[in-house]
């Protein structure tokens, strides 16, 4: 037994406290190599799996479960020592049920007791005087329009809670009395407090009190109501009912028809009728004219009416003292009491939650009514006290209950419930879970055996009933209905009457059985701690270890997938897939994030999820289908961890949920997310939700046993944790409370130089009560005159127009420069989980961008320069919420200003200017006179010297001018020659064609002449003359062609010469399209003959309707050559950068614009940046390297176009294209 506990403890610590063994691991898509495959038939006989018949082995231990304590049995433990166990009847413990004041169990009509809550410990968060609450006995509560709660105590005054702090108000600040009975916020934002000493109105600054001396019916005020007309109604303790119109009180008593003068509760229905609940007289319905009274004689269960609530259906719930609760439809009453499951018959408050349930706060607990049944919560389930005096719902829908002596407690909802040994579990640490065919749940614990839970009670089985060991790692129910428990003392079969335990004596690998599975053939598989895998077919055991190819011998997970293949997860070995014939192993080499595999599960889409010590791995169904095939070497396994949002990398549990989500249990709670659907790519954990203590939920580290996290047939998730505090967690995802509204931000406090300031003390027009209250709230005391004077002196110079109500911070604040350090405190109306609210802020005029996303609720800015500033803050709730409540809120703003320091004020600068002028003028006058004299003496000599220098400079300038003209002419000639050189290859190509014709036809003509001579010798023949004529005709044709192509060559050479010399400047009518065709063609062939030719898609899109226009053809050809040459150079550059996938294209277009002609040359090269485009037409500017260009090409091009009275425009998109557009007139 001790040895087994030690082994379990080691295993648990191994996985709960595992260090990061692969700190360099990269999550995501991991590289893979082919899986290792071991075929059993290929193994030598010495290591073939051995099958041993159970008949040849010692019989297993069989123990009958005793019905009562009697007898004992003995067995030998792992150390060979004999252990004797006393046989005891199974221990049974019932869950808590509803009882009356006498302790008797309350049962329903079927004789079943009413269970309390969900059976376990419910989730309540309690606040008391330790947290700042004024007193632990709280009589009443309200939610104000700012989203904050006010609690009226039974002697400590009033406490306001803003999600982080309590602010208390008492009679020392002006409250009428410290014993509160009722509260209300009116339509103007004032808070009214009903005390036993009158009623107080609080406007956020001061209290205004009213008593019977002012016309109030009585000083004890139990209820307050504002009707739709704005009148206030006060129910008093003996004086009747008072109506207050803002100026005067009108009182109604029994003399006016009121049921009783002791008024406890008030309600206005949808028709405007007033319901008045009394202590002893039932209730009255007042329509503004008459009272109609209802009592027990009309069906009311009790004449003492404590509370009213208007239901969503328009009916009225009535809570009574002693008679339970009744639902009144205007005619009849439907009453519920403790006999129906209500917590108690003294009902003090009734309210409805966001889900439509009705809650009843009673003297003996709280009850939730869903329309059919009651669920009751008491102190035994986590409440601080049973006596609940009031209840209130906050802005996020959470319910707060005010108790008599236990403070205020917030119900966190029924989604989470915790079970422990207090409810009947055998041990707080649950390792494995199973639901049987009858719907009972079985929980295997770490040292407490196995507990069966039928929803009403726990029955626990241990060694004393015959269980093999009290550490239960795993369990299943086989197809025959038998249970199999993997324990620290072997595997035990339970048939409902007896335990049969198998150990190493029956050839199990070890006695620690971590996992159990049943395959489709009915075979049982047992994974052990160090002993590998054992198969049991009911008669024979077959053992598999790493010798046969198993991934490892410590087996934590076994399951059979939808394709009848076994998946086996091993510590430090990865995964083995076993089809009965071979093992196929997956490890980190195939893409697993880690080789220590704890859990393997298959989801509804047949994807495989793998939990390891270093993260979560995902094998999609597409990738899974590759295993065992030729493409398995390309297997892709995705992995996720903390960098993807998971709370921890140690994955202990995986549960594919019925709602389609994946639940993952980690060392830091569990997470829910949406898996991929179908064949969609999966790269992100969508809709990830984290549930742990950091997010406000009762979940600690998950245990690693088989099905330690388990979903039952009702959709409830059960999770065993390694903490006594959280123990076994019951989680109903459907009941999860989600915020319906985005958080509302408020400003809480403005501090200067890190110091808290009572702003009313600094304000000029604040009254003494506001000053006193502000000082008490900030310092816990009123300041003495000397302290106030010191405060005012220290912060002298600060000005503001007023102080905000409720949260006293200055409005339109102006700070002197010496107080230019400001702290702005803020918060939200998220009272339940303020730590899940994130903020971003910016101080406009100071910050350039929003702050990082933060959870702190304070912003600090120092060394602020003079100017006007606006502080903006926005928030978002990161906990469970609907779509509308999960985004960023609109920013809240606060404006303030900082004055400049004295030396930077406008009048300081004016003084500096006057002082400078007053000192500068005399100095300036003296220096001016002295300078004039000196200049006069030097003037003549300077003039002579300047004359000589001017003469020399003129001579030098004239020579420089001549040199510049010469250089310019040389550069222009070089540009021509460079252009001519570029064209040489193209011209050579063009000349080659006509010369080929000349050569070819010359040869033919010579041959024809030879034939003519031969024919002439045959003149005697009759048909010779005809042949001669034909030959002469052919020779004529050939010579004509020779003349034509010789003319072409001559023209090309003349063009080249003209291009090199420059044109004559004469404008003559010319066919622009032909000029473009000829010189684009020449430029293209010149480029192709270059040492770096490129392939270009040439497109000529010419308007064939163009007329001839005045053109200096020789000059304009240079325009076409320059533009196309530049285009080819640009596209060559882009090819070098982009690569061969880029396809170069040059398009030249012409278009008739009416009075002018448009020519466009467009390439798809790299484009021209804006900073370069404006310089392209400047002489000597070039983007080419070294001596590749002179920088005159485009400048000369521009000059030629201007000489034609035309214009040149450049448009470009960097990285995509450049277009040169030329416009020239049709007439010169």
Estimated structural class: alpha+beta
CATH architecture of one domain: 7 Propeller
Strand fraction equals: 25-35%
Q: What does the overall shape look like?
A: flat
As for the CATH topology of one domain, it is Methylamine Dehydrogenase, Chain H
Output the strand order for the largest sheet.
Answer: 1-56-55-54-53
Note the main sheet.
5 strands, antiparallel
Count of DSSP E strands?
79
Helix content: 10-25%
Radius of gyration: 49 Å
Cα end-to-end separation? 115 Å
User: What value does the average pLDDT take?
Assistant: 88
In the CATH hierarchy, what is the class of one domain? Mainly Beta
Task: Note the total helix count.
Answer: 11
CATH superfamily of one domain: YVTN repeat-like/Quinoprotein amine dehydrogenase
